[in-house]
Amino acid sequence: MAEKVTFRKGGVHPEERKALSETAPLKKMAAPEMLYMAVNQHIGAIAKSLVKAGDKVLRNQLIAEGEGAVTSRVHSPVSGEIVEIKQMVFPNEAKVEVIVIKNDGKNEKAESTEQERNLPSSKEEFLEIIKNAGIIGMGGAGFPTYVKMNPPKDKTLDTFIINAAECEPYLTTDNRLMLDYTKEFLEGAGMILDMLQIKKCFIGIEENKREAFEKIKSENKDARIEPKLLKTKYPQGAEKQLIYALTGRVVPIRKLPFEVKVIVQNVATVKAVYDAVKFNKPLTERIVTLSGKGINEPSNVLAPLGVTVSAIADFCGGINEKAKYMVNGGPMMGKAFDNTNLPVTKTTSGLLFLAEEEVSSEEENVCIRCGRCIYVCPMGLNPTFLKEESDRRNYEKMDDVLDCIECGSCSFVCPSSRQLASSIAKGKQRYAKHIKKGK
Ligand code: SF4
Ligand code: SF4
């Protein structure tokens, strides 16, 4: 029996609810007539559109790019015509420019894309390929991968961690990818080790994905790569928690993983790196889990980016009358939304259509000082205190909000249904602005 590792402080055990989609085979969705490509799907400088209404585009053509050290690019998933460029409001309440493309059905691709090519001969060339392909953290964070893979010159890396915890309930995209693209995924991991000259790779997989763990273990021929079982406990996939579980190293407060010689990438990001480096394929598609009692056929779909929620839901048998809430991402960290015209982006790991009985909708009540939120916080914070100070906008006492990873564990256990995590997240945004202003 393989040893199972975990993080040290806090954590919760939400109902997994993965059974709805975990055995569903991967379904490939053809691109529909209309696609909506948000120019800003990443953290960093906003990308600017390079096209205008009436322009013709090819599949894989660059259509938006940003300037500066931290930014990303956007490519067209189809050949067709730009219909318009408009603003849409996304679940994080941000207004984002969206390039609307009419698919001409010809599927004509940009020259030299999607064909095998020579592997890069240097780290610089490798990072340039990843940058040009528009690859960002596909686990949800959206941080540009070329930046994350290039720590400051005085930092050395000795461990590459692949985050395959997929600890959010319902989500099964990483599981599906590891089962269906095992060879490509492992080759991608090997490429990253070669290019960044790192000697060790751990693939951290929660024990509820044992089939994927066994498959990777049996197909892996690279002695540098070691799949490791993690205990099923939320938030096992949070970066600092994962690093501790797999290496025993503690990333100092407000520091990044490279401080302990580690980089972390998500499963889907590794596969995207493989596609870009080996086949010159930019990031224009991803696997999305559609789940919950409100979708007729819970599924894992390989979908072109830019398809609307309604189009991908129709591809999965449609939304039914039980659907009362829609969530982009998992139920712990995802964002509620109500507009089915919004598109799938590079960070859409899941779309949940939840029935009344799948959601706790009790009224928020007074704090009974039970201390449960403090006990489960994986960052060792005092969530009830931070919520109160955040709601009061008491900046003098809010500094700890910056350490909150917004995992939602505190809200999950609160017997008074207090909206701790969302209040703290709002407080964090306001406090960050407040500090910036003061500088
Ligand atoms: S959301 Fe923040 S405060 Fe709440 S448990 Fe997670 S890290 Fe702690
Ligand atoms: S879990 Fe809820 S009721 Fe208990 S201390 Fe925290 S905020 Fe108060």
Description:
This protein is of the alpha/beta class. It folds into two domains: 277 residues, NADH-ubiquinone oxidoreductase 51kDa subunit (Rossmann fold), CATH 3.40.50.11540; 67 residues, no CATH class. Helices cover 27% and strands 20% of the residues. The strands form four sheets. It has a six-stranded mixed beta sheet, with helices on both faces. It has a five-stranded parallel beta sheet with strand order 1-12-11-10-13, sandwiched between helices. The longest helix has 19 residues. One iron/sulfur cluster binds next to helix 12 and helix 13.
In a few lines, what is going on in this structure?
The chain is built from 13 helices and 18 strands.
Keywords, please?
alpha/beta, single chain, globular, 439 residues, binds iron/sulfur cluster, 2 domains, 20% strand, six-stranded mixed β-sheet, Rossmann fold, 13 helices, five-stranded parallel β-sheet
Individual helix count: 13
CATH level-4 homologous superfamily of the largest domain: NADH-ubiquinone oxidoreductase 51kDa subunit
Query: Ions, cofactors, ligands: which are bound?
Result: iron/sulfur cluster
Classify the beta-strand content into a percent band: 15-25%
- Assign the CATH class of the largest domain: Alpha Beta
- Per CATH, which architecture of the largest domain? 3-Layer(aba) Sandwich
The CA-CA distance between the termini, in Å, is 54 Å
User: Domains counted in the coordinates: how many?
Assistant: 2
| Shape, per Cα inertia axes | globular
Oligomeric assembly:
single chain
